[in-house]
Design brief:
262 residues, alpha/beta, TIM Barrel, 11 strands, disordered C terminus, binds iron/sulfur cluster
């Protein structure tokens, strides 16, 4: 069977052997992040619908799981845009859990977490990772190019509410772009937001591959460590082989062999 909606498995820095699943067509997303590695958003929307038929995705997953004998660490909903835009996400996860015990991760930009049906869908996952690059609206918009209806204070408030009921792993990724969100003020704002959210893990990351906009420049390893010291909360820095310095309370993930951002 030729697969259209699943890809990999790939070696992920954070999720081990990860089978990727997309629930939406290429670059249907609520954001148009300046660092996006898969190009410009072609349809920017906050509307949830069944962009790809849930049963078509499930048929591919069933076929793969029936024929694959290699170990998979996670099934990861990420893909080509924002996975929570598919209104059948919760149904897909529930059906998947009937046929496999492989943990399920959802990587989201968090833009739809203000909607109760999205919260309900994400409760089905074993890991939910939200990207939160800034905690004030101006910086948030500068990096995400999000629509004005998405306000970061609402996103943070609803992630906090979600945290209260979600008993599995909640992770936050902070992606830093030079000259955009690498200010001390942003780090302190994030520190405050993360004090409220209380995630299980925080990953400090930067631009790795060619981004959508060439103005998106990565931070150096020492700059990432500096950010991690201020953002704190036991944050983990993603880095490439050859870097040596380790900050107090900062764990380092060696990304030298990684093949995926997820
Ligand atoms: S990085 Fe993620 S959230 Fe941002 S535009 Fe790309 S797919 Fe959308």
């Amino acid at each position: 069977m030729a697969y259209k909606y699943i890809y990999g498995p790939i070696i992920s820095r954070r999720l081990g052997v990860s089978l990727g699943v997309t629930t939406i067509p290429h670059k249907v997303c609520s954001f148009n992040c300046i660092y996006c590695e898969i190009g410009f958003t072609t349809l920017q929307t906050l509307q949830r619908k069944e962009y790809i038929k849930a049963d078509d995705i499930l048929n591919e997953l069933k076929d793969f799981l029936a024929n694959n004998t290699n170990k998979i660490d996670h099934i990861t909903f990420s893909g080509l845009g924002e996975p929570t835009l598919n209104i059948k996400l919760g149904y897909i996860i529930r059906e998947l859990k009937k046929i496999t015990t492989i943990p399920i991760a959802v990587l989201s930009n968090g833009s739809l977490i203000t909607q109760e049906d999205v919260k309900a869908d994400l409760l089905e996952a074993d890991i939910v990772k939200f990207t939160l690059n800034a905690a004030d609206d101006t910086t948030y918009r500068k990096i995400n190019l999000n629509p004005p209806q998405v306000k970061v204070e609402d996103v943070i408030k609803d992630i906090v509410d979600f945290r209260k009921v979600f008993k599995n792993e909640l992770w936050i990724e902070v992606l830093l772009v030079k000259g955009i969100n690498n200010t001390i003020g942003n780090y302190l704002n994030l520190y405050n937001a993360l004090s409220l959210i209380r995630p299980d893990k925080i990953h400090i990351n930067t631009v790795v591959r060619a981004p959508a906009l060439k103005v998106s420049e990565p931070l150096s390893f020492s700059e990432l460590l500096e950010a991690s010291r201020i953002i704190n909360h036991g944050s983990e820095v993603i880095y490439k082989k050859g870097s040596r310095r380790i900050a107090p309370q900062t764990q380092i993930i060696n990304a030298s062999n990684s093949k995926s951002l997820s």
